[in-house]
Amino acid sequence: METLDKGAVDAVAALAKQSGSQLLSVSVPKAIPGLPPFVPVLVHPETGKVTGLYDQLAPWRTSPERKAGTANVATLESFVNLVNHHKQADSAIFAATDWQKPSLTAVIDYHGKETPDNGKHRVHYQFPLSEEWKAWLAINCKGMPQLAFAEFIENRIEDLSSPSDKEMEDYEAMFASKVGFPNEIVQMSRGLQINVENRIKQVVKLQSGESQILFEEDHKTATGQPLVIPGVFILQIAPFFQGDAARIPVRLRYRKSDGNLIWFCEMYRPDKYITEHVRADLDAAAKATELPKYEGSPEMSGGSSL
What we know:
Elements: H1 6-19, E1 22-27, E2 38-43, E3 50-52, H2 53-57, E4 69-73, H3 76-86, E5 92-96, E6 103-107, E7 121-126, H4 131-139, E8 144-145, H5 146-155, E9 160-161, H6 165-175, H7 182-194, E10 199-205, E11 211-216, E12 227-229, E13 232-237, E14 246-257, E15 260-267, H8 270-289, E16 293-295
Parallel strand pairs: 4-7, 5-16
Antiparallel strand pairs: 1-2, 2-3, 5-6, 6-7, 8-15, 9-13, 10-11, 11-12, 13-14, 14-15
């Protein structure tokens, strides 16, 4: 509660006298932080009923007692500008580096070193994940039937990229698998679409790190040429909307189930790309606002209890 100034107290005292009530000042022990040295109350002389002035005066406010609420901004620039507009001496910025839901949150009325505050006024920036990133994230490490996987690859052809010589050398050594080129991945997906009704006849692991899959139709002789399956391919997509593209290796796996294949795409260390970006933007925001920065989340908003 805010401390009433002398003019306000005198005005209330005059009104109390007219109504037959008496205005008293109750001293507050210093041991209770966050309260003024005295609290004015009205005491009815006949009933002895005590009424706090805060509830009586609050409906007549022409402006809020304090700033509260969370502003959600759409860009890092707006985040910095709004924080600079409201910041106080003890304001602070927190970064959530969760790679699936990265964000920045500024707590304007954050606790001081010695004095607690309310923590109810905040500015929040949810990093806008790109549509292509969300598409690959939706299937990451999740099993897909053969036809659904083939159709997904066909629909996301523009996200595939040819590996550089260095990437081929590094990833083939790291994953012990051949790194596929976009045309190989596309040919594979189309071969899977053709053989969607067929059963697996044989799966062979080649010395090159590829897998060779042969299909049979109605348990008869194998039809067509065997499909060659790379173990890794490269994505070039921007994790954030209108952001810079990142090159991300994806492991391609499969599992036999009742004569059919279940496919899995596993993005390698997707958290790395998100975390690095969030930390860079956290540093930039802290520098632009001249506020302290932390990785994590602030306390739940609300005042401390007595």
